[in-house]
Predict the structure.
Amino acid sequence: MPTQIPESTITMAPLGEEEMNELDSFLMSDATSNETMMLDCLDGFLTAIASAPLMLKPSEWLARVWGPTEEDAPSFENDAQAERIITLMMRHLNGIIWSLHQDTDRFEPILAINTSADDTREFVDGEMWAHGYMTAIAMQLNSWQAIFESKHGAKMLRPIQLLGAAEITPEEEALVKTPAQREELSKQISASVEWIYKFWAPNRRAAEGASDNILAHENSKQGRNSPCPCGSGRKFKKCCGASTELP
């Protein structure tokens, strides 16, 4: 049975450090399957959702976080824990949306830090982040097609694609073979995210405009003396309907 998504999560604030650690701990716990996205993978997944031409609804993407099959659903202790974890994920998505909207060139993805058996130095590795990003693209591949066909789109997506695509050619595999190669590509992720987010901005604005028009149409059919559908308890004409009155 699908977990209910709390309506209160839509406008909540971005996660703090302790909350991010709480979400990370749950994703790594025994309550989840081996297929569940870890925090860096989830961050990439949600970044692609926030950057897409059409944003998926939570009901469309949430189950994929746990894994590709229904059997991968987590074992929550109770409804309260389920609501808490889903709220944290929704707030993290909101934080990504806010960050991209406010200042895309300062966006910082959550990337893993790994060491190599042949080198004690730490390397930034965006492989799992990119895997999450590409997973989200695959969920609405037709909507993303224009970026693959654009003059610069394929080039800007290439670092993420090389690191995270499910299948790449032998020639491409040679480009991500070493930790140093993956680190170099990982350092290009922020620039790619910025470009892709801006590329789809007109599509998102058009989609938001369409939603506003639908809402206005629904409001026009709402009885002026009926209870407002926003739940305020006031009459429609004294609440949301007030903005439709002529001066």
About this structure: The longest strand covers residues 119-125.
